[in-house]
Structures are given as C-alpha cells and as structure tokens.
C-alpha cells in the first residue's frame, strides 16, 4: 500500500508535483494508493483533475484508490463536483487504511 500526502494549496502550479508523486507511487505496483489531502488548504480544479486521472490510472492497474479529505477546503469541492461519488473518500488516514486493509 502506498500513501501520497499533499499540503498547502493544490492548484495548477502544484498539481504537477502531486501527479509526479502519484505516478512514482504507482510504479511500485502497490495493492492500494491513498492520497492524503488532510493538510491541503485549497483544492483547485487542477488538483481535482489529477485525482480523477490517478483514480482512472489506478483502476486500470487493479489498484484500490482512496482519498483522505475532511473539511470545507477539500471534501466540499469533491462532493460538489461529484468526484466523491466516484472516488472512495475518507475522513482520516486511519479510516482509509482500515477500510483498504479490510
């Protein structure tokens, strides 16, 4: 299992770094990938696009994919855009680890 954590603003300037970190994690062939946005203060459309691309890439590789997002800066945009309906969304890293290890 791999965990990729982001912090600060996740926008068009920082989304490529997240994309690279996720790609590096997926290259190690994990059974599951968790993207932890607990420390993200702003989630822009570029960040959400990276999450959807990563979700699709993980799915084609048979890797379970989950996102940790709690609070108005992260979970709200994911719910409003409908991404939360497609991606497993968890309130904490511990909850995500527990669900994916079950």
TrEMBL record:
<dbReference type="InterPro" id="IPR003658">
    <property type="entry name" value="Anti-sigma_ant"/>
</dbReference>
<comment type="similarity">
    <text>Belongs to the anti-sigma-factor antagonist family.</text>
</comment>
<dbReference type="InterPro" id="IPR002645">
    <property type="entry name" value="STAS_dom"/>
</dbReference>
<dbReference type="InterPro" id="IPR036513">
    <property type="entry name" value="STAS_dom_sf"/>
</dbReference>
<dbReference type="GO" id="GO:0043856">
    <property type="term" value="F:anti-sigma factor antagonist activity"/>
</dbReference>
<protein>
    <recommendedName>
        <fullName>Anti-sigma factor antagonist</fullName>
    </recommendedName>
</protein>
<feature type="domain" description="STAS">
    <location>
        <begin position="1"/>
        <end position="100"/>
    </location>
</feature>
<dbReference type="Pfam" id="PF01740">
    <property type="entry name" value="STAS"/>
</dbReference>
